Amino acid sequence: MDRQTDNILSNNKFNMKILKYIFSRDHKIIAKQFLITAMFMGFIGLFISVLFRLQLAYPNRPFYIFKLFFNKFANDGYLDPSFYLSLVTIHGTIMIFFVLTGGLSGTFSNLLIPLQIGARDMASPFLNMLSYWLFLLSSLTMLYSFFVITGPASAGWTIYPPLSALPKAINGSGTGQTVWLISMSIFIISSLIGNINYITTIMNMRTQGLTMYRLPIIIWALLLTAILGLLSFPVLMAAVILLILDRGFGTSFYLSDIFLAGEYLHYDGGSPILFQHLFWFLGHPEVYIVILPALGISSEILSINCRKPLFGYHTMIYSLIAIAGLSFFVWAHHMFISGINPLIGSVFTITTLIIAVPSAIKVFNYIATIWRGNIKFTTPMLFTIGLISFFITGGLTGIYLGNAILDINLNDTYFVVAHFHIVMGSAAIFGMFAGIYHWYPKLFQKMMNEKLGHIHFWITYISIYLIFFPMHFMGINGMPRRYYDFNAFGMFNIFINMNKFITIISIISGFAQLIFLYNFTYSMFKGKDSSKNPWKANTLEWTTPIEHIHGNWENDLPVVYRWPYEYSNPKYQDDYMPQNISDKH
Amino acid sequence: MNYKKIFNIFILLTFFTLIEFYISFFLINSTLVKNIIYIFLTFLKSYYIVFYFMHVNSEKLYYKLLFILPIILLLFLTTIIFIEYYEVL
Amino acid sequence: MNDIHLNKINHQNWKLMMWLFLISDIFTFCGFINVFFALRLNSKTIWPNGDIVFTYVPLIGYNIPLAFVTIMTFILIMSSISMYASTYEYKKSKKINSLIWLFFTILIGIMFIFCQSLEWIHLSNKGYWFGKIPIGHNVNYSNIFFAITGFHGIHVLIGIMINIFIFIKIYLEKRMHSYNFLNNAGLYWHFVDLIWVFIFTFIYLI
Question: What average pLDDT does range A409-413 have in this prediction?
């Protein structure tokens, strides 16, 4: 036995069961840790969003719940306006970075990559464990910012200077912003270590017979996600370091000609737009990091639940590569009204419209996969169909926003909020839900309750459309983002009732997530035991024994003979043919 | 890879550095030509360092192609920054 | 077990991981260099000329433009050579030779940090620091100078610590199985030199 397998198979230095769980280097346990942390952060982000929705619907009413949770930031139950900005900032940061980046790509990369490529563990199990613990440290640091005297960061999740660069500009730009920056630095390091691990494992440790063109689409998606993360997070690191220097060392990278409270500050020669360029150089690939794993998960689930090969396998791979590659060339479409050179505006309009093409190709392929399939409406399938629906809706509004001219009216309004919530906050989250429901038997050896899953799906799906669809109309009518009170402006009076409606639906939808939480926790202990291959799938992760073992397979590693989408082939007896069973049987 | 070859490359790199040092004395008036020579020599030096010291030369083809994508991305970012900030005064 | 290929892959794994980390670090430095371009093109006041700012050479005096930084570049390239020689000797299983070359690398690295600190101290005496510059010039010149060279200096320090660590490891080991580690440490050290070549051009020369 060589040293690597030896280390993995006898990873029992600590005999206590609980220590074996906490400091484990086994990728499956690390996947569970990522999942639980991301779900915890997700519920906090959800709770924050329901609270500030309350503020938006009833701006002039005191609420006891504000006083209960945000004591000094909600005097007599009226939410502080600057604290509203903090809530919006932290909601955005938690949801995008911790839930959708850490939770989606962290969980599913760790779980699926070694299992689906036939490896015993990741390329470096120690770095994998380090990546999780840094992720947890970063999450706790972000939550700590709520307990700082001046409050958490409040410059938006995009932390534009000068608001974020001057500690005295707003309450949250003091210690809260510093804590935010520290938390994000740790998160970037964790993400970097994880991405290095994933790319190396996929490129180097595939089992015998598994060429690149026999990989499941989810692995391609996770590979491209890791490459995107590797190349784009460092630029955010540079921007954050320069912001820290601006805040604490008196430099003026992003500041020039600033007056604060009537006093002229001696900063000269900087440029706030420079930060925006650097930030969005990460920011745009970041949203593709969020959506690519979800698209990969949906490819798998569609194929399995329609009992049909994925339509256009090679085209899917090339579209994924095109989306990943083009995502680096579109960042300034977030900056159309920031005062950039109009020539750049046209360049980025063109590239943004080009990137819509591979995404559309993928959606057409999904629909062609479902067409005339033998569809089984399991919970993961429902969530995947929901994802496709959201992706089409959100994608179409994205094309509106991608034009620099239209963006003049629509930027920084609720139209943008609706767009990214539908395409990130709904499509990607539905991808995450679908993945959890689908791979729950692999993670916890039990099946989740189908009925509760269906109820969870229908309530969430309908309420997301009810919440975010009206926001498009609010946006077209000019309603701006990040305002804490719309009743002060007469022109938005027509939307008072709509705001209330959206808030009520969001409270109902928030409670529906508790159904999911109940289902998740209950099934872990009392759910139906799952068989080895409950969904009758082809990929390698369903060939491991039901109970987890380090090293994933007991004896030899599986050998792969075909691509993973061999469903309903008349040549074979069953309607599926696993990758590791040779044709000679 | 033997000592003689590495020593030759070392002499080459030192030579380029000394060229840059002396160019800062001459050609004081034409900044554009000076800058172009500097940038060209820098890329040449970095080619030698990456391909010989970091022995990418002896790796497979896809390793070498791997560098092209980041360079294209960074050139695009630099071009946009230049277009954004260059003001014809 | 039919995973005999696992042994051969180990070296490839660590090398690929090191390269991926280096590529990500290149992007960080390129972020900084792009900030340099933006601030320089954006400046409305005079951008100082490197030939005039960097004229000091310790122990010799003033008025030799860019001499000190050329010496520093030469030093760093020399340390790259000695690192390469160390790896080469280790591959030929000559432990003592390899350790001698590694010792030179560490020494030269410390000399580089020493030179860089002398430069910083001299500049700060002349009035350049984070947010400060002699009157009339664009303050971002010294900002970006200290930010980039400081960031690079931290990388050199980490490289020296890694080299010391592997020096001790090779010194104490009984069988010679640290080739992978030494190779990757060499890659990191060459990367530090590579970044310095770019910094030399963009910050000092242009």
Answer: 91
Give the domain ranges of chain C.
5-205
Given a cut of 80, whether residue C6 has pLDDT beyond it is: no
Domain A27-543 has CATH 1.20.210.10: yes
Question: Is residue C109 very low, low, confident or very high in pLDDT (cuts 50, 70, 90)?
Answer: very high
Mean pLDDT score, A538-558: 87
Which residue from C26, C80, C198 is facing B42, i.e. has the nearest CB? C198
* Alpha carbon distance A110, A163 (integer Å): 38
End-to-end CA distance of chain A: 30
For A514, the enclosing helix (H) or strand (E) is: helix A496-526
List the 54-73 stretch of B: residues with Cβ below 8 A of C.
Answer: 54, 63, 66, 70
Q: Please judge whether B74 and C78 are an interchain contact, meaning their C-beta atoms are less than 8 angstroms apart.
A: no
Q: Closest Cα of chain A to B62: distance in Å?
A: 12
Q: What is the pLDDT of residues B20-49, one digit of tens each?
A: 777 777 766 667 888 888 888 888 888 888
ipTM of the complex: 0.91
CB atoms near residue A262 (< 10 Å): 5
Does the beta-carbon distance from A1 to C1 stay under 8 Å?
yes
What is the pLDDT at residue C41?
Answer: 87
For residue A263, the cross-strand partners are: A260
When the candidates are 1.10.357.20, 1.10.10.10, 1.20.120.530, 1.20.120.80, the CATH number that belongs to C5-205 is 1.20.120.80
- As a whole number of angstroms, the distance between CA A273 and CA A242 comes to 13
Smallest CA–CA distance from C3 into chain A, residue: A557
pLDDT of C142-153, one tens digit each?
Answer: 999 999 999 999
Asked if residue A258 lies in contact with residue A162, where contact means CB atoms within 8 angstroms, the answer is yes
**Domain assignment of residue B41, given as a range:** 3-85
Domain residue spans of chain A: 27-543
Whether residue C86 lies within 8 A of chain B, CB to CB, comes out as no
One-letter identity of residue C39: L
pLDDT(A2) > 70: no
Residue pair A378/A302 in contact by the 8 Å Cβ criterion: no
CA-based end-to-end distance of chain B: 52
Counting the structural domains of chain B, the total is 1
The pLDDT assigned to A17 comes to: 66
Q: Is the pLDDT of residue A519 over 70?
A: yes
- Mutating which of A208, A233, A251, A273 best tests the C interface, going by the most C Cβ atoms within 10 A? A251
Classify residue C84 by burial, with Cβ atoms within 10 Å: 0-12, 13-18, 19+.
buried
